[in-house]
Amino acid sequence: MEKLLIEGGYPLEGTVQISGAKNSAVALIPAAILADSTVTIDNLPRISDVQLLADLLEEIGGTVELKDHEIIVDPKDMVAMPLPNGKVKKLRASYYLMGAMLGKFKKAVIGLPGGCNLGPRPIDQHIKGFEALGATVTNEQGAIYLRADELRGAKIYLDVVSVGATINIMLAAVRAKGRTIIENAAKEPEIIDVATLLNSMGAKIKGVGTNVIRIDGVDELHGCRHSIIPDRIEAGTYMIMAAAIGQKMLIDNIIPYHVESLIAKLREMGVKIDVNDDQVLIHNQHEKTGVDIKTLVYPGFPTDLQQPFCTLLTQAEGTSIVTDTIYNARFKHIDELRRMGANVKVEGRSAIITGPTKLQGAKVRASDLRAGAALLIAGLLAEGITELTGLEHVDRGYEDLENKLLNLGAKVWREKMTDEEVQQVKSS
Ligand code: EPU
Prior knowledge:
With 428 residues, this protein is of the alpha+beta class. It has helices spanning 22-31, 48-59, 96-105, 124-132, 163-173, 189-200, 232-245, 260-268, 303-313, 332-339, 369-381, 391-394, 401-407, 419-427; strands at 2-7, 12-17, 39-42, 63-66, 70-74, 107-111, 136-140, 143-147, 155-157, 179-183, 204-206, 212-216, 225-227, 246-252, 273-275, 279-283, 293-295, 318-324, 343-347, 350-355, 363-365, 385-389, 411-416.
C-alpha cells in the first residue's frame, strides 16, 4: 500500500489536460458486450476501474486489448458466465454488467456492486426497470440473478432520477422487442455519451439529455468506434484546485458547458474565469467570498464536486453552507478537514464552513474517491506535509494524478506505507 505525500504552499501554474470521463468509460465498456463485432473506445482514462472492467469482460470470454488510451473489445466469444464474486465487488459500475448481459444473453448473475461508501446506494430502480422489461430478478446471497425468456419494451417511470438506472435500463432495452420509454430519466452528459455509442452500434435511442428517453429495440448491434467525452468531474476538481491555490491555470480538453454550474459558483465567489471553446483559464484570486451550494441532478451542482468544493470554501471569507441532496452521508471528508484546521461542522445533510482558515499538514485518509480529491487540495494549501492514505479510492478516478500535479508545480510524491501504518489502516 502507498501513501501520497504533499508538501503544501506551492502555488500551481500551467496547463492540465483532462482525461476521458470515468463515469462514461465504466458504462461504455460493459455496453460493448451488446455488440456482435469489435468495439473500439478511445480517449479512455487509464484508471483502476477501467482495468477491472476490462478484466471482467475477459472473464466472460471477451477478447480485450487495452492500449494507451484505447480499449478494443471483441465480444464474439462472450458467454453469460456468472460473476457473483471477485472483481465485480470492487467497483460500483459493475452493475452495468447486469443491463448489458441481460440485454445480450437474456440472463446474468452479478454480485452486488462495491464502490464508494456514500451512505445507502440502492439499485431498486435498476431492478424495477429490468422487471418491467420482462426479467425475473432475485437476490441470492449477495448476487443478483436476472433471467428473461424474452425482453419486451415497456414504459418505465423512475421514482428517483438515477444515472445508473437510466443507463442500465437503456442497456437492457436496446435489443428488446418493441419500444421502451424511460420517464423521469437522468440527463447527465455521460448518459448521452452511452447513447451515442449504442446508436453508433445500430441502436435506436432518442431523447437522451431530456427526461424522456425512447428506445426502439433492434435485433442486432454491430461494432463501431467511439471517443469518450472529457471528464467534467476531473475538470471540475482541477478548476477548484486552481481557484484554491492556482496562480493561473488552464484546464484544457473540456466541454465548458458541462461545468457551467461550477463556473457560476466560482464566479459568485469572486474568481475570474475565461471560458474558451474547449478550455477554461482560472486566474489567481486571493480573496474569495463564501457561497452556499446545494447538489442537484445535472445540470445542477454535481454531488461529485461537493467534497473538493468544501476545501475551497475553507479559504473563503464568511460562512458557507453545503447541502448534499443526492447522498446524505457524503461528508466523511469533513472530519479529516477539521484535523487540518478547517472550521467546519456537519448538521444533517449540510456542512457549515467558516473561513478563511490556514490549513496545517496532517495524516489524513481518503474514505472515498472525491474525499481524496478534497484532502489532496487541502494538502496543497496546507502549511507543512500532508500524508494522504486511501489512494486506492483516488486511483479509481484520477488518471496520472502525480504527473499532472508535478507539471503544475506541486510538490507531491508516493511512498510505500510501513507495516505499522498498513496495520493501523486495516484496524480503523
Ligand atoms: N437511487 C435510488 N435507487 C436506485 C438508484 C439510485 O434510490 O435504484 C438514489 C441514490 O441512492 C442516490 C440518487 O438516487 O441518492 C442518485 O443516484 P444515481 O443512481 O444517480 O448514482 P449512481 O448511478 O450510482 C453515478 C456516479 C456517481 C455520482 C452519481 C450522481 C457512476 C459510476 N457513478 O452514481 O459518481 O455521484 O451518479 O451523479 O456513474 C463519483 O464519480 O465519485 C461517483 C460516486
